[in-house]
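Task: sequence design from structure.
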């Protein structure tokens, strides 16, 4: 079917938004498939985007095209908060302003419908915003089948926004041996089935929800899951202003890149201190000097100084100075929020007092933040580079005039009262700190966010939940990224990085045409066999993403003491020499092909010489399992390429004060990583680096071996589950 992009609805949107070719193609393809294919709640059309990457913009374009191609009404299902309903209403009325003014369209919040709509109003195209909860769904059913029954014969498009879960849950009644579709899904289904003509489109950023589900119904904790399989999938193009996991996790590994300065590690102890009031650990009159809250203090100061720097840059280039935001999201409970509010408010008051005195303490705090932030600001050569004295004067003015405001957002009322006319959180002052929990991650837009202090630390991370919490993702001016900082524990950061890798590979699988094209799920069974794994059994906090030429290495450790490990290090030396001399099957580019069994022994010895820091992990079983998986399918046997280097003198911490994570140098094609990737075609490679471990480099004055495992080029992208749900 030919989709016409010259209809009055889409033309209005095109003129307003200037869609690029990729966006238009996505919208056209989606509407064509909605028209040509049958879709319902079990087999929906799927719009797959990234977190805060323009999904709303895209489905509004789809709405416009749908109105131009025979659809009379759109039922837009939103997440269950009034704030998001209000934001969605504001967005739709703004986007379709021209068509509303011309009496072509009416937009309604289903819970705020005017009484007795006339035939003239009902003859227009309609959009109903329906919160995904019982009363809203009852009201839309009443509207279509009782109040205005003619609507039931119109052609309707359902758009399920933020469809985080792609499986439909059934409640299992053991005593009755029957299953019941969960309430919301039942109501949506009843509504859809009683309409003359309807289509169903889901909008999501969580593709794994399509993978992490069984192929048939499985009872688990009295729930039965019936899989949802999309009728089709369209990928939302990622615009050029999008900042996501690639920045926070991939580019962050490039020394000197602005992204390498974004992440600041927070200790687990400090996160614990944010949970509840403990005046024995935190002295309220010493908030600007206490070591126990060093990171939250640094976060607040970096936010103030970063805001000052950006506003100075904007004024220097003739722009209007912007207002900025920071989020503190560590707990769900209101008691924790009250404690954090007291902590931050007291810190603000002490900063205000120090500013009036232009104290040496405040100057020292400002100097520290300035030094931190200017590392990344300096990577943007085109930006003005303010000197310290100018920034110091700006900080004094900002604090004297109380530009800094902190606000708790932990109830629907809080959100409602704080929204501006666009339905976004209002920035009341130049510097706004928002303290709260999940209401801050329910899709409510927060502009100009340059600080994110995150500490939600559940025992079992849910991938879609963690991604929805990733408020640092989204459309961000690169200039703002120069002063942006992200604070969390190493453990949480590592899990978020794993989830990013998983998310990225599954998105690539969609681009290739589905996960059958190359994403494998495997696990190690108790009998040590590695077997295919049911995706719905994976615990998301214990997965490893294996990709061609991906590196795996321990990062964030100290060596054992010399007296404890020197004997083991000598044993590793002797084992490597023996393996290379007696068991090597081939040599290529100073790499030796050796039996995987010998490599396992070397791994075990190295593991015993390293002590991991808090939040860092080097699970021997995980490395051995991955090694087994990478070597098990080669018909010629289980072998590994060894690339060996000695007399290395790497620093324990890099130039940014972070643990070194790149001991393997590419070396313009001659370095060990380049060699490993060239030889690792059919077999994996293991780079073994013998470090001198000198005290002046941060070590304990004893040599040690640092292993880097490199997957071979000919391996399928694989999700390896270290633990699975029993």
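Answer:
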């Amino acid at each position: 079917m030919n989709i016409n992009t010259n209809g009055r609805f889409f033309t209005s949107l095109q003129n307003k938004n200037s869609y690029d070719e990729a966006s238009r193609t996505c919208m056209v393809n989606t509407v064509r498939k909605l028209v040509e294919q049958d879709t319902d709640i079990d087999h929906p059309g799927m719009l797959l985007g990234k977190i805060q990457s323009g999904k709303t913009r895209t489905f509004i374009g789809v709405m416009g095209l749908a109105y131009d191609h025979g659809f009379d009404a759109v039922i837009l299902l939103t997440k269950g908060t009034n704030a998001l309903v209000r934001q969605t209403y504001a967005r739709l009325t703004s986007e379709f302003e021209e068509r509303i003014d011309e009496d072509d369209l009416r937009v309604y919040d289903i819970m705020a419908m005017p009484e007795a709509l006339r035939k003239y109003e009902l003859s227009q195209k309609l959009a109903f915003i329906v919160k995904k909860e019982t009363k809203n769904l009852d009201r839309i059913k009443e509207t279509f089948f009782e109040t205005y029954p003619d609507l039931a014969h119109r052609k309707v498009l359902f758009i399920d926004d933020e469809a985080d879960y792609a499986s439909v849950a059934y409640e299992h009644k053991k005593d009755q041996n029957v299953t019941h579709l969960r309430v919301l899904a039942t109501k949506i289904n009843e509504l859809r089935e009683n309409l003359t003509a309807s289509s169903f489109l889901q909008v999501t950023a969580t593709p794994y929800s399509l993978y992490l589900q069984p192929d048939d119904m499985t009872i688990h904790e009295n729930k039965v899951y019936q899989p949802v399989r999309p009728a089709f999938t369209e990928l939302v193009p990622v615009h050029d202003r999008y900042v996501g996991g690639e920045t926070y996790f991939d580019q962050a590994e490039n020394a000197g890149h602005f992204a390498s300065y974004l992440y600041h590690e927070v200790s687990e102890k400090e996160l614990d201190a944010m949970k509840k009031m403990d005046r024995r650990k935190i002295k309220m009159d010493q908030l600007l000097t206490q070591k126990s809250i060093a990171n939250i203090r640094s976060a607040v100061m970096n936010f103030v100084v970063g805001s000052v720097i950006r506003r100075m840059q904007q004024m220097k280039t003739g722009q209007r100075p912007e207002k900025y935001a920071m989020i503190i999201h560590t707990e769900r409970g209101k008691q924790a929020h009250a404690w954090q509010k007291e902590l931050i408010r007291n810190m603000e008051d002490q900063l205000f007092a120090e500013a009036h005195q232009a104290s040496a303490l405040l100057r020292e705090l400002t100097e520290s933040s300035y030094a931190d932030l200017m590392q990344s600001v300096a990577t943007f050569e085109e930006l003005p580079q303010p000197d310290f004295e100018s920034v110091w004067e700006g900080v004094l003015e900002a604090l004297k005039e109380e530009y800094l405001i902190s606000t708790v957002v932990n109830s629907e009322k809080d959100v409602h009262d704080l929204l501006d006319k666009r339905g976004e959180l209002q920035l009341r002052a130049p510097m706004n700190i928002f303290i709260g929990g999940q209401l801050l991650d329910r899709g409510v837009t927060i502009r100009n966010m340059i600080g994110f202090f995150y500490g939600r630390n559940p025992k079992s991370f849910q991938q879609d939940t963690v991604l929805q919490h990733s408020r640092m993702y989204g459309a961000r001016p690169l200039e703002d990224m120069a002063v942006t900082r992200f604070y969390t524990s190493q453990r949480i950061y590592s899990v978020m990085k794993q989830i990013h890798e998983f998310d990225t590979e599954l998105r690539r699988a969609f681009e290739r045409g589905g996960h059958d094209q190359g994403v494998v799920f495997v696990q190690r069974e108790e009998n040590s066999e590695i077997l295919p794994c049911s995706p719905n059994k994976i615990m998301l906090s214990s997965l490893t993403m294996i990709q061609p030429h991906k590196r795996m290495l321990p990062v964030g450790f100290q060596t054992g003491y010399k007296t404890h490990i020197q004997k083991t290090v000598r044993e590793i030396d002797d084992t490597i020499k023996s393996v290379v001399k007696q068991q090597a099957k081939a040599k290529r580019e100073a790499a030796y092909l050796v039996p995987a069994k010998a490599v396992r022994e070397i791994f075990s010895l190295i593991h015993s010489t390293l002590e991991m820091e808090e939040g860092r992990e080097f699970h021997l079983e995980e490395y051995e399992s991955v090694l087994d998986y990478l070597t098990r399918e080669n018909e010629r046997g289980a072998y590994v390429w060894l690339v060996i280097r000695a007399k290395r003198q790497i620093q324990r911490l890099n130039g940014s004060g972070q643990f070194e994570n790149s001991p393997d140098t590419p070396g313009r094609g001659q370095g060990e990583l380049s060699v490993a990737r060239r030889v690792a075609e059919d077999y994996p490679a293991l780079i073994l680096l013998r470090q001198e471990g000198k005290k002046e480099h941060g070590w304990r004055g004893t040599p040690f071996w640092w292993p880097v495992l490199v997957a071979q080029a000919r391996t399928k992208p694989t999700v390896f589950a270290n633990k699975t749900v029993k």
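Confidence is low (pLDDT under 50) at residues 165-181, 213-225, 459-465.
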